[in-house]
Amino acid sequence: MKTFHHIVITGASSGIGEALALDYAAPDITLGLSGRDETRLANVANACRTRGAVVQARTLDATDRAAMAAWLTAFDDAHPVDLLIANAGVSLSQNDPRLESFDKVRRTMAINLDGVLNTVEPLLGRMMKRRQGQIGLVSSLAGFFGRPSSASYNASKAAVRVWGESIRFPLAKDNIGVSVICPGYVTSPMTDSLAGAKPFLVSTSRASRIIRYELARNRARIAFPLPLKAAVWLANLLPQR
């Protein structure tokens, strides 16, 4: 089981990112937290500090490649990162069954896919040189098939999943672990705004517990909850019509 001391989490101002930050926070832990909501991020950072962690929080848009690189490399200079969790993401058209505008498609892809690349790229070479580290890429069970809505969200999460599962192999020789995290419905502002049923809804505390346990084991794919995971697997076996 791996242990982590210098941890970076993007999208840390709410949902899974917030829960992971709070649960990792402890004495002798240094957290680098980023998010777009300055007030919420500050509240999370302060809560982590009360648990004994050293925290550097920065309000950032994951699509800003230069700003992400500057923040991440500066943090890594002071605190060599051993766990990097690329969690920032959005779903801009989750309640609209119509064809998305290309502006929304491009914005979703920029955050959910380019944001992951902007998080990983600045630190990957450093981690490889140190021959130490774990990377967690947050995808989704929605990335396993084309649902009739949220097309850009589904596609972006599918791209994250496949890319993460692919780079796991070449990075293993450098002792870098890669875990692709594929949650179902998890309590969060994004999920709360989703219309319709949310089968097998998982609390953020339970999601955090599962993710932290499996990251420490370098699990290749962290998919949950089991009933929804099974339903997605069965859906992929059905005729596409």
Task: Draw up the topology in text.
Layout: E1 6-9, H1 15-24, E2 30-35, H2 38-50, E3 54-59, H3 65-78, E4 83-86, H4 102-130, E5 133-138, H5 151-172, E6 176-183, H6 189-192, H7 204-216, E7 221-224, H8 226-237
Parallel strand pairs: 1-2, 1-4, 2-3, 4-5, 5-6, 6-7
Helix pairs in contact: 1-2, 1-7, 3-4, 4-5
Summarize the structure.
This protein has about 240 residues and is an alpha/beta fold.
Entry keywords:
alpha/beta; globular; 241 residues; seven-stranded parallel β-sheet
Structural summary, described in words:
This protein is an alpha/beta fold and 241 residues long. It is 49% helix and 16% strand. The protein contains 8 helices and 7 strands, in the order βαβαβαβαβαβααβα. It has helices at residues 15-24, 38-50, 65-78, 102-130, 151-172, 189-192, 204-216, 226-237, and strands spanning 6-9, 30-35, 54-59, 83-86, 133-138, 176-183, 221-224. Strands 3-2-1-4-5-6-7 form a 7-stranded parallel beta sheet, with helices on both faces. β5 (133-138), α5 (151-172) and β6 form a beta-alpha-beta unit. The longest helix is centred in the middle third of the chain and has 29 residues, at 102-130. It starts with 5 loop residues before the first strand and ends with a helix. The model has no long low-confidence stretch (mean pLDDT 93).
